[in-house]
Amino acid sequence: MPDDYNNGKSKSRIIVIGAGIGGLTAGALLAHRGYSVLILDQAFVPGGCASTFKRKGFTFDVGATQVAGLEPGGIHHRIFTELEIDLPKATPCDPACAVYLPTEERPINVWRDPEKWQEERQRQFPLSEPFWQLMEALFKASWEFQRRNPVLPPRNVWDFLQLTKAVRPSTFITVPYTLFTVGDALRAYKLGNDHRLKKFLDLQLKLYSQVDAEETALLYAATALNVSQLPQGLYHLQGSMQVLSDRLVEALEKKGGKLLMRHTVEHVKVEKGKVTAVVICNQRTGEVWTESADHVVANVTVQNLVQLLGNKAPNGYKRRVEKLPPASSAFIVYLGVDESAVPSGCPPHLQFMYDTKGPIGENNSLFVSVSHSGDGRAPDGKATIIASSFVDTQQWWLTEDYEGLKQQYTEDAISRLAKFFYLKPETIVHVEAATPRTFARYTARDQGIVGGIGQRISTFGPFGFANRTPIKNLWLVGDSTHPGEGTAGVSFSALTAVKQIEAR
Ligand SMILES: Cc1cc2nc3c(=O)[nH]c(=O)nc-3n(C[C@H](O)[C@H](O)[C@H](O)COP(=O)(O)OP(=O)(O)OC[C@H]3O[C@@H](n4cnc5c(N)ncnc54)[C@H](O)[C@@H]3O)c2cc1C
Question: Which domains does the chain have, with CATH numbers?
């Protein structure tokens, strides 16, 4: 049992379940604002899907590899400024991604410079410029709106007030598009039959929205497709992704907050519709106890939250979660290689789409992150290559030969990657793979699902899961809530929940 985490002077006692970027950001901000904070995480290291592991001198980012929101005014920048901690060193990704469509030798480069990107897309997708202009206009309005901290979806008068305060005349340009998908917009611009553009959009959008262009909400897509360009942009962190969590832990502890790793929350207790405590198990000692709290912030998937509530989960909420379309999950291969395996001038992020058969499948893709010399991820003369693809979650739980399936996927991924990288026994130093079962084990995410809730019309922004849950003083943060997945997205959700707690 921890020492009392309330110093007696603070506003209230808050327990945060999970030390992912969402939970750490919420916990650090709450500690900074004078609350007594205890964060509990079942894993060995903080960071969840944005943490790392080390093998043979290599440092591998487990999931997230690139970061948005580091620019002045960006969400990480704003939060780190409030917490009075230094932003991690980072290099901009330019191109943000080099996208290879099946059978094509030359990539579509998503450049950081907006003009260069405009030239590239006009060359790659003639006649599509009006569509991109609409995306830019919607992005500008949505970005400004998001920066004014709206609460989405609103659940009470205070939330609604925050939402209306964020609205400006420029926001109204987005309103008519609220129920549009990217597929609808393509058809409106007579681009519905442009299969090459569609494939490119499917690839890029799935990374952020978990669903293809046909299903992705247009307003969400506007942000996903424009965030890689200046004055925003994507960054590659110096050292590894772990640095983000380390800085947040430093900020938490500086203000007296506590983080206990290897502590699992087994149950959230509710009395008369209000959260009262959590049941904690210390994984090292097996000790189980109940810790009371004024507020509980759950940095877990909404599916996990329902399980933690047990029979106290409100029926309507439970039914809504049960009715969600299947969530996405990933297969990831982590390679430690000799530098000679990486072509010179290789961009930090690439995406390959395939039309070839194999375990990874036709019409699937690999999203690849490559370390560069001196970025802290590999010993001198070596590099890391991390490649992920979307997979069917159930296949990994139903198989009778899990190790065999994992081996088949690993071999398939390496043979696909070998068309671009020089991957031979003499250049590969380390191979390891992660599946939904791996994510379930290390991040405790239900079934190992990752990436949050698909950003379809029925589940994005105004129609998504709120930070405010139906249980009083129980808050949900992380990639199940607005504005969705990514370290930047979950930081926004944490900031919103913190403001809501303060407003009580
Ligand atoms: C393969 C892959 C690639 C990605 N690439 C990018 C990228 O390049 N850029 C980007 O921004 N994002 C990327 N993402 C998404 C991003 O990593 C996540 O959206 C984000 O990190 C999720 O953060 P979170 O705080 O919501 O949750 P999580 O990271 O899932 O953290 C939740 C934490 O809660 C803990 N926990 C869960 N249940 C309990 C319990 N009962 N008791 C105690 N602890 C518990 C877990 O151990 C975990 O540490 C990627 C994700 C994946 C999987």
Answer: 13-50+68-88+240-324+453-503 (3.50.50.60), 114-230 (no CATH), 329-446 (no CATH)
pTM of the model: 0.97
Report which ligand 1 atom has the smallest distance to the Cα of 349: 8
Q: For residue 279, list its beta bridge partners.
A: 267, 290
Nearest residue to 213 (alpha-carbon basis) of 230, 228, 194, 233 = 194
Q: How far is the CA of 430 from the centre of ligand 1 (A)?
A: 24
87 lines ligand 1 (CB under 6 A): no
- Cβ contacts of 374 within 8 Å, gap of 6 or more: none
18: exposed, middle or buried (C-beta count within 10 Å: 0-12, 13-18, 19+)?
Answer: buried
Q: Is 422 exposed, middle or buried (0-12, 13-18, 19+ CB in 10 A)?
A: middle
Exposure string of 1-14, with b = 16+ CB inside 10 Å and e = fewer, is eeeebbeeebbbbb
Span from the CA of 486 to the centroid of ligand 1 (angstroms): 8
Whether residue 1 has pLDDT greater than 80: no
Mutate to test the pocket of ligand 1, among 17, 41, 45, 49 (most ligand atoms within 8 A of CB): 49
Maximum separation of any 2 CA atoms in the chain, in Å: 65
How do residues 110-128 score in pLDDT, each as one tens digit? 999 999 999 999 999 999 9
Give the Cα separation of 237 and 65 in Å (integer): 8
Beta bridge partners of 245: none
Protein residue with its CA nearest to atom 12 in ligand 1: 486
Q: To which residue do tokens 């995410």 refer?
A: 445
**CB-ligand 1 contact for 309 (6 Å cutoff):** no
Residues with Cβ within 8 Å of 272's Cβ and at least 6 positions away in sequence, in order, are: none
Per the listing, tokens 């611009």 go with 189
Residue 268 contacts by C-beta under 8 Å, 6 or more apart in sequence? Answer: 17, 275, 278, 279, 296, 298, 305, 308, 309, 312, 471, 474
